[in-house]
Amino acid sequence: MNKQTGRKNRKWKTAAAWLLTLLMPVAAGSTSLASPLDVSIEDSEPLQLLIMLTLLGLIPTFLIMMTGFTRILIVLGFVRNATGLQQMPPNQVLIGLALLLNFFFMSPVIDQIQERAYDPYMNEEITQSEAIDEAMIPLRAFMLGQTYSSDIEMFMGMAQISSVPTIDDIPTRVIVPAFITSELKRAFQIGFFIFVPFLVIDMIVASTLMSMGMMMLPPTVIALPFKVLLFVLVDGWSLVIQTLYASFQ
Question: Which uninterrupted H or E stretch holds 19?
C-alpha cells in the first residue's frame, strides 16, 4: 500500500511540476517552454490542494487558447441562432459537443504529444525539460498551421519583433494570440455561410406575408418551422461537423 501511494504521489508531483514549468515560460514570453527551474513539491496537503485548484482553474484557459474549441463553439452558436432556436440545443449540449469534437479533431496532435513526449518521459528516456519541448512541437505546429500570416505579423509588430531567423523562433506569446484571432475570423466566416440560407427563408416569408397584407404577424414565427425543416432535410448537423473537420485540415 505504501509503495502504491508513493507512486501516485510521484505521478501527481510530476504532473504539477510539468504544468507549473509550462506556465512560467509562457508568461515570460519565451520561445521554448523548457524551464531551468526545477520544481519540487513537498508532501504538504495544503500545498497540494492549492496547486491542484490552481491547475484546475488554468485548464479551461489552455483548452480555449491553444486548441480548436473556440472555433467549434462559435460555429455551433451560429447554427443555433440561424435556425431561430434561442435555447435549443441548450448551452450545456453545445459546450459538450464542442468539447468532444475538439478532442476528436485534435487527436492527431494528442497522439504526437504522447509519442514524442509522454511515453519517453514515463519510460525515463528523456528529462522533464526535454519532454516539455517535445510536447510543444506538435502543438505549435498545429497553431501555426491554423494561423493567418497577417495575424502573426500584426502581433510580432506589437511585440516589436522585426523578424525571426526561422518559424520555430517565433515566441509562443505571439503565436497564441495570433492563433485565437485567426480562429475568430474562421469561425465568423463559416458562420456567415451558415446564416445565408436561413436568411433567405426569412426574406421569402416576410415578403409573402407583406404581399398578403399580414403585416402584424411576426415573420420569424412563420419562418421557424421552415428553417427547422430545411435543417433536418439536409442533415444539417452532419454538414456542419464535416465543414468544421475540413476547416482543420
Answer: helix 2-28
Angle at the Cα of 121 from the Cα atoms of 117 and 127, rounded to 5 degrees: 100
**Which cell goes with 8?**
501516485
Closest CA to 142 of 96, 171, 107: 107
For 19, half-sphere exposure in the C-beta direction (CA atoms, 13 angstrom radius) is 17
Q: Identify residue 33 by its one-letter amino acid code.
A: L
Closest to 30 measured CA to CA, from 170, 171, 132, 159: 171
Contact 131, 118 (CB under 8 A): yes
Helix (H, G, I), strand (E, B), or coil: what is residue 229? helix
Instruction: Report the half-sphere exposure of 49 (CA within 13 A, side-chain side).
Output: 3
205 touches 226 (CB < 8 A)? yes
Biggest distance spanned by C-alpha atoms of the chain: 82
- 167 φ, ψ to 5°? -65, -25
Grid cell in block for residue 21 = 514549468
Over residues 100-149, the pLDDT tens digits come to: 888 888 888 888 888 877 777 777 777 777 777 777 888 888 888 888 88
Burial class for 20, CB neighbours closer than 10 Å (0-12, 13-18, 19+): middle
d(CA 100, CA 44): 35
DSSP string for 142-158: HHHHTS-HHHHHHHHHH
